[in-house]
Amino acid sequence: MFVSDDDKTSDTIRIRREVVFLVLSGIFLGSLTMLNILGISRFIDLSFTVFGTLIPFQVAVGILAYPITFLCTDFISELYGRRRANLVVWIGLVLNIWVLFILWLGGVLPPHPEMDPATGLPIIGSEGRVFFEIRLLTFGATTASMVAYLTAQFVDVRIFHFLKRLTNGKHLWLRNNGSTLVSQLIDSIAVILITHYYAHALPVDVDKDLLSQLIMFILSGYVFKLTAALLDTVPFYIGTSILIKYLDIDPSHGEVK
Fold it and tell me: What is the CA radius of gyration of the chain?
């Protein structure tokens, strides 16, 4: 059967589009999984001093992978549209549930170590204690992040497309930063409050004011995400420009169909 050059070109473009979508989705889902497993297993202290005043700044290690998830959904929203972006968000939720299931299953299968009633973990020195520590922290972090994640990611996608319609597809920097900054503020508040009040997993000092500590955790996380969002504007512009050409997308239309 004869295949025209146009058909070959069309197949090449279609394959490119699907490969790029899979790569962006894979980075998003891989970062999300790493985020939840590492989660709150360690808090990084980045406190600094300004004019002799100590500014507390502590973030969970899992947050390091978080900004890339919003960059990926912004790329998918820009290049593939709202439906595919929402699809990836839902797949992320299913992935979270799968992680929790495996952790639950790993904990109920034998052998069953002797548990310390005070901590709910195997006694120190027992085989498998590390797994149960990760399991406990990941359960708390994932439950908190699932609620915050769903809310923030859907807000991100909705605001992104609202700003895209409002500006008639112009001002890419506005929808990239605007959608991410609002959604990450929502995420920062939700994940800290849920992690503390539901999972009781924040390293709070009982001798200090709780509200000020929660605000510090929220602001630390948000400032980190805010900085990352501002820094990813240039890569987002460059990446979008390159991918629009590589995927043969009509800039006036702006999305793969």
Answer: 22
Evaluate the omega torsion of the peptide bond into residue 111 and state whether it is cis, within 30 degrees of 0: yes
146's CB contacts (< 8 A; 6+ apart) are 93, 96, 97
Instruction: Please tell me the total number of residues recorded for the chain in this structure.
Output: 257
pLDDT, one tens digit per residue, over 80-138 is 988 898 899 889 888 888 888 998 999 999 888 888 887 778 888 788 888 888 888 78
Helix then strand then coil, in percent of the chain rounded to 5, is 70, 5, 25
Token look-up 């994640």 returns 149
pTM metric for this prediction = 0.77
- Among 253, 249, 222, 236, which residue's Cα sits nearest to residue 73? 236
Does residue 52 register a pLDDT over 90? Answer: no
